[in-house]
Each structure stands twice: as structure tokens, then as C-alpha cells.
Amino acid sequence: MVLLRARWRRLASNRQHPAVATLPVVALTTGAVYVTGAACILLVVLVDPRTAHRAPLMVIPLTSMLSGLAVLKWGRRFPRWFFHVAVVAGAVLTTAQILLGRGTGVVDATVPVYLFVILDAALFFSVVGVAVHLTHVLLVTTVLLPQVGVSWQTVVTLNGVCIAVGIVVAAVCRAADAAEEDPLTRLMNRRGLDRRLQEALQQARADDSRLFLALLDLDGFKQINDGQGHQRGDELLRMCASRWRSVLPKNAVLGRYGGDEFGLIVLDDTLGGAADLADRLREALAPEVTASAGVAAWRAGDSASMLMSRADVALYDAKAAGRNQTVVHGDPGRAASELEAAIECGELVLHYQPLVRLADRAVVGVEALVRWQHPQRGLVPPGDFVPQAERTGAIRALGAWTLDQACLALAETGNTFATVSVNVSVCELRRAEYVHTVRAALWRHGLQGDRLMIEVTEAVCDDDDPQVAETLHEVRALGVLIAIDDFGSGYSSLRWLDRLPLDVIKIDGTFIEGIKEESLEAPILEAILVMARSLGVRVIAERVETMHQARVLGGLGCELAQGFLFGRPEPLWEPSSVQRPMSWSLAAGL
């Protein structure tokens, strides 16, 4: 009895849905249940001789059938909570059909549909969720069915079957979960990872979404296992799993393939984002433990084995290059030459997003954002190639091209804009030659230094290379404005504000998103603005998307803003709102 009670407590405390409950499977099953149950009831309504008024009794099954077809077609796009609502709705519709069909054969045909409700809940919901739905059905059947002429013997049998189905199906699903769990790390095992990878591939093929696979391998694990014993090796694996689980985002799945090799499936991200996640996992380990990682991107036509093979090649390259690093699949030298060839062939383009003065919505500058017009892949966003350019060294050629083209565009537009800003990688700032690159671009296009602004991320605050700060000071000596991008997203920027030659801070967009519609207050933003004024630094608010956000920022004294409210990034030479005078003003609303 004590053992049973302990097992129940463990089950009840598990609020996770079974592994089989992926959205495509839940949608397929729920839609099929709706359609099947509705079709059976509809058939009885049409052929039962005791049914005199058929039209009213056909409304609910027809509605249910159409709903089921809609779930079959679009259900995989619905949020998970929708299917809880669908199960409750199924019980309610079943009950309503029984009440409408009192005295006819429709009641006998509809009562078994309650089993579909329990089956759906037991397959896909947590133990607590199954208990809630089962209790709901038992209460309804116990109270309602005797009132519509169903015998108490039938009610008792139906409730017993519902309870048995709920318990057995829920237990089987959780037993299947256990078969896909690695007992040592409590992560998915090879079987679970293979299944999730197949499901991810099916989804990627269906909606052309992005999918990445990373393989991670602990460096020197065999020596630890052999030298310190298997118990120490197991402790190390458990430690890795615990630390990685704590930093894993919702769009990623982590599991253990076996030994010291782990698999990471990343959905709906960029190649750079997947590689950065692999880096974060490596960095989350204890200081004395290192790991290597190989990352590969899914391509149309890839099978699971092909994707796995490329990730394995990348992992081998990471090991061969000295371990303790992440390698993206593909020859780094070839990737660098491909990007440099793209520059030579004119495949790279700059899109510009306006920088606006909130007081009168005048465009005072633009930010240059690079895109790759790839001949096969179409317009590629920077997140897919800039991180790789940083890893391969191609970032120097890319950065120099971006800087030159941005200065050229500013010179050709004359006095239309006061400044143009470009993003600069920490990798570029580690080289003293970057100062000469900036000086040459300004001289070549006849620009004063204060018409150019370079944006650096908070990563410069964490960089240990003293050359980074020295480069920034020398660039500032040319009159170029220095801005720190995504201010507030890290943890090191405050202590660097008085050490770096900063002119502008760009408030991270997450703070702007936090402005509540019903309030004109934003205490954190107000504190940043007060601090900036005391330091003599100008502030730009990023990702401003609503009029209310603009009003709040203007009321707080923020002078400049950038975001979709004012204009999306687009080529400067095409007709756009960036070139035309603004026909509407925020002044009246501030």
C-alpha cells in the first residue's frame, strides 16, 4: 500500500504531457475522434425509426464533424491549451446530444462517445489533466444518464470502463515514455531522440521550417572513466545533463545518444542561433570540463541519417581542430571564400531602417543592415551567415564592404540623413587595422567622422582583449560616434559605461515591449534615461512598434527611436517612406 501511494504521488506530481503528445499527433487524433464520433451518431439519426424530428439532432454531429475536419487540417498550428478545450467541448456536445435525443436510439448511440473523451485525454495530457477530465465525465454520466432513461446498470458499466480505459491508456503512454528516457541522465535516450528527429523532419518538410542538429561530446571522457572510475564518469554525465537542462530553450530538445555523446535538436532558429546555443551549453559546464560540438542544418531532401552524418562530420572537425569549440558543418575555408565571392559578385545588399526624432518624426539617420541575395536560397538574413563569418575570419571582408557601402549611400543622398550606422563585430575590433578601414572609408566618400556611427553589442564589455577598447578610442578620435546596441540585455554594460567612449546607447527592445498599454509609466526605462542624461549619452529606443510605446517614450524624454512603427529595413534606392517627407506627426500625441 505504501509503495502504491508513493507511485501515485510521483505520477500526480508529473505535470508533463506524454512524449507521444506532439502537436501533429494530438491534432490528428483529436480531429479523427471528432469526425468518427460525429459520423456514427449522424448515421443513427438518419436510420433510427424512433427518431421523428431528425433536423435538430443533426446539428451537433454536423458541427462536430466540421470541427474535426478543421482540426485535422490546421490543428498542428493550434496552441496546446486548445486541445484541453476540445476535450471539454467534446464532453459538452455529447451531453447536449443525449439531452436532445431523449427517448430515441440517439441516446444509446451517443453514450459510448464519452469513451473517446477519456481516450483523448489519457493519450495526451498529464496525469492531473487526465484526472480532471475523467472526473468531469463521471459526474456527468452519473447525474445525467439516469434522467434520460439509461439504466443504472449501464451507467455503472460505462463508468467502470471509462476509469479502466483512462488508467490503462495513461499507464501505457507513460511506460512508453520510460522506454525513451535515459535512466542515468533523465534525458531522452537514442530511441526518443530518433523519434523526435523524425517528427521534426516531417514538420520541416510540411511547412518549410528550419531545423538544426547538434552533436556534443565531452572532451577526454574516456580518460576520466578509465582513470577515475565509472562512478565518476556517471556523476559527470549527470552534472552535464542537469546544467544543460537549466539553459535549454523551449524550441530545443536535448538527449543522450550513448556514452558521452549528446544530441540537440533545434527548431525554428537560425544557423547562428543553433551554434550559439551549442556554445552556451558548452560554457554551462564546470570550469574543469570541456566539450566539443558539431552543428548541421537540415536541407530540403535530407533524411535523418544524412543530417546526422553532417553533424557528426562537424563534431569530428571540432575535435580535430583542438576540441573545446563548436564547428558548423562545411569546410570553414570554403565558407569564407563563398562569402567573399558573394561580395565580389554583388550578392550582398544593404537594407536601411530609419532612425526617427520622436518630437516631429523627422528621419535623422538610418541603420545599415546587411542581407545576402543568394542565387539558390533567396534573401538570407544576417543570422544565417554573420556568425559563421565571425568563425571563419570572413567577417573582416564583410565588415569592410558593409562600411564602405553604407558610407557611399550616405554620400549619394547628400544631406537627406545626418548619420548612417553600421554594426561592428568584436572580431573586427580586435584588429588595430580596423581604424585604418574606417578612416579610408570616410576619406574615400568625403564624409566627416560624425556622420558615421558604429554599433557594438554588449559583448565588447566581456571581451578580455585590451585591443578592443583601444580600437574604439582610436575610432572615436576620428569623430565617429560610438553606440552600444541592445543595452540592458547583458550584465556587464553598466561598469563599462564610463570606460568606453560611448555617445549613444540603444535600449534593448525587450524593455520597449514591456511598456503596458494601460499605463504611461515605465520605471526601468525612466531610470536608464536619467542615467544616460547624467552621463551625457544620447538614447535610442529600439523595436518601437506602437503609437502608445512612442507616446510613453516621448513623455519620458527619449529623443530618438527606431522600429517598425517608423519603417522596416528596405533598400534605400527604392521608393519608400524613408525617402519621402513624413506626412503624419507624433507631436500632437506626445
TrEMBL record:
It comes from Nocardioides terrae. The chain crosses the membrane at residues 21-47, 53-74, 81-101, 113-140, 152-172. Residues 209-331 form the GGDEF domain. InterPro entries: Cyclic-di-GMP_PDE-like, EAL_dom, EAL_sf, GGDEF_dom, Nucleotide_cyclase, Rev_trsase/Diguanyl_cyclase. This is Diguanylate cyclase (GGDEF) domain-containing protein. CDD domains: EAL, GGDEF. Keywords: Membrane, Transmembrane, Transmembrane helix. Gene3D superfamilies: 3.30.70.270, EAL domain. GO terms for molecular function: cyclic-guanylate-specific phosphodiesterase activity. Residues 332-583 form the EAL domain. PANTHER family: CYCLIC DI-GMP PHOSPHODIESTERASE PDED-RELATED, CYCLIC DI-GMP PHOSPHODIESTERASE PDEF. It comes from the Bacteria.
